């Protein structure tokens, strides 16, 4: 054996009772699980007092460039994350042509930085996944990564940034782009339906694209049209269109925010339960925090975003148009702000693109004119925390049987949301040990086995003989998020070992130089697996 882990409390990812056992690893896979494994391995690890679980799956990640930029990627590796799902919220870097890519880079600079430090030399989904596999001099990436075809990028590529229906020819082009991305290995399709240009798609257009996703055995992952006013209607729209398309549905960062929805999570869960009882294939993810995080520009009404980033800046410079934007935000409730009139006291600047504007980070936006000046000065790059969530909704949703964990972690900015560095240990420390909202076994299933099943991974997500040795060992008595709103990049405690393919990426609580991550691609039969790799 390459490694024998002795005396671990095995929390196997199924949700079943934990048990004490030895676990042996050989050639990157779990070779044996027994009460006592005779003999030893090239390495023996005494796991007394530690829980052994499958590696955690971040179902909603924004590490699209971070994995190429930073070989360490300790933000996720230190949490026990061994797989991230990228291409979220309908906007990422493939498929695209040169013109589309320029606009997309500007539109999501707040999520991923401008990308000037990364050679974005791919234009297809397959090219991006190949680039992940060959990153850092061919050594690979810090953790495994799957990818969703971003519907907003597809629409920008085929239609542009205008608010209008797609022509039949444009819709056919979008179908082909989605099909190509899935054929090249994407696990599904994402949307950002409060972000342009994805939000300009009708339900009928989305249904047609979801038919393509269903044909390839993928799933649809929408950031739907509202998490505020008419949030339930927005959830119902997603259920209805995927039911019509025959497509699996995974609801991104599913929550009920703003004052309108305080205490209303049971209504959402009842809606889901009715659909599940009818045979719909639905899962969801959430992060265990109340504030949200997005870009400041995302709050603007859709008409102000039409035409792409340069058109937005031109409107903001025009006083009359800027006054229309203010009225939409503060009086009407802009669709970019989920139909709710903005309460500026809830908006905290978490990051800027221009270092000269760093003094704004950590401050609350004190009104529209301040927001307008910052958007113009930083060319739409500022990111924000939006303090609009409700703890009782967060707890109710994480208990649901189809729930999975997703950080929605934006790694950019001087003061990012602490969820980027803390989501998974926060579940285990705060909501398992301290509050008892979930049992340890339930929580680990939410973070490993259940997301692996959604991704149709045939050999990940459980501690079973023959499964890949993507494993995390943590101390249930001390595991905790180190990240806070004041120190958002502090690493977690109580997670001394993380393995990917049987190789230590965290050992004795320290990040090693191992780059064991690769792309995880959907196969022609719908299951997902990695590219073959040299060992």
UniProtKB/TrEMBL annotation:
SUPFAM superfamilies named in the record: Composite domain of metallo-dependent hydrolases, Metallo-dependent hydrolases
Pfam family, one: Amidohydro_3
GO MF assignments: hydrolase activity, acting on carbon-nitrogen (but not peptide) bonds, in cyclic amides
Domain (Amidohydrolase): residue spans on this chain: 43-506
Origin superkingdom: Bacteria
GO cellular component: cytosol
UniProt xrefs under PANTHER family: COLLAPSIN RESPONSE MEDIATOR PROTEIN, HYDRANTOINASE/DIHYDROPYRIMIDINASE FAMILY MEMBER
Record protein name field: D-aminoacylase
Biological classification of the source: Bacteria, Bacillati, Actinomycetota, Actinomycetes, Kitasatosporales
């Amino acid at each position: 054996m390459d490694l024998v882990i002795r005396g671990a409390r095995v929390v196997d990812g199924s949700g079943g009772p934990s048990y004490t056992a030895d676990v042996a690893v050989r050639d990157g896979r779990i070779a044996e699980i027994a009460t006592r494994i005779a003999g030893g391995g090239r390495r023996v690890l005494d796991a007394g007092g530690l829980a052994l679980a499958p590696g955690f799956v971040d179902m909603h990640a924004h590490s699209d460039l971070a994995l190429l930029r930073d070989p360490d990627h300790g933000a996720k590796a230190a949490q026990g994350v061994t797989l991230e799902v990228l291409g979220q919220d309908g906007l990422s870097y493939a498929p695209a042509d040169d013109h589309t890519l320029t606009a997309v880079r500007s539109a999501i600079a707040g999520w991923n930085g401008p990308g000037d430090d990364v050679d974005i030399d791919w234009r297809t989904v397959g090219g991006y996944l190949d680039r992940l596999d060959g990153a850092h001099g061919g050594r690979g990436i810090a953790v495994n990564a799957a990818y969703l075809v971003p519907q907003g990028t597809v629409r920008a590529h085929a239609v542009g940034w205008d608010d209008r229906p797609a022509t039949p020819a444009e819709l056919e082009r979008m179908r082909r782009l989605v099909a190509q991305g899935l054929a090249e290995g994407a696990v599904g399709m994402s949307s950002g339906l409060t972000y342009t240009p994805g939000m300009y798609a009708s339900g009928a257009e989305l249904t047609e694209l979801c038919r393509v996703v269903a044909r390839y055995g993928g799933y649809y992952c929408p950031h739907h049209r509202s998490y505020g006013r008419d949030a339930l209607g927005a959830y119902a729209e997603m259920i209805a269109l995927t039911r019509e398309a025959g497509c699996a549905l995974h609801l991104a960062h599913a929550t009920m925010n703003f004052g309108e929805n305080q205490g209303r999570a049971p209504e959402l869960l009842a809606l889901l339960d009715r659909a599940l009882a009818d045979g719909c294939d639905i899962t969801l993810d959430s992060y265990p925090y109340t504030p949200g995080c997005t870009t400041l520009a995302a709050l603007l009404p859709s008409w102000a975003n039409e035409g792409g980033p340069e058109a937005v800046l031109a409107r903001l410079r025009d006083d009359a148009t800027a006054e229309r934007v203010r009225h939409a935000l503060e009086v009407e409730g802009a669709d970019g702000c989920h139909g709710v009139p903005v309460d500026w006291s809830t908006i905290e600047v978490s990051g800027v693109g221009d270092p000269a504007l760093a003094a704004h980070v950590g401050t609350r936006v004190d009104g529209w004119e301040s927001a307008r000046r910052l958007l113009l000065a930083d060319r739409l790059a500022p990111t924000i925390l939006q303090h609009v969530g409700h703890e009782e909704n967060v707890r109710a949703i994480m208990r649901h049987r189809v729930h999975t964990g997703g950080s929605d972690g934006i790694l950019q900015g001087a003061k990012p949301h602490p969820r980027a560095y803390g989501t998974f240990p926060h579940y285990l420390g705060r909501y398992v040990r301290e509050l008892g909202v979930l049992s340890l076994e339930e929580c680990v299933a939410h973070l490993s086995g259940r997301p692996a099943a959604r991704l149709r991974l045939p050999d990940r997500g459980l501690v079973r003989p023959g499964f890949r040795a993507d494993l995390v060992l943590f101390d249930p008595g001390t595991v905790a998020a180190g990240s806070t709103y004041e120190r958002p990049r502090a690493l977690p405690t109580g997670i001394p070992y993380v393995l990917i393919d049987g190789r230590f990426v965290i050992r004795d609580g320290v990040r090693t130089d191992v780059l064991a991550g690769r792309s995880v691609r959907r196969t022609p039969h719908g299951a997902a697996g990695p590219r073959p790799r040299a060992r």
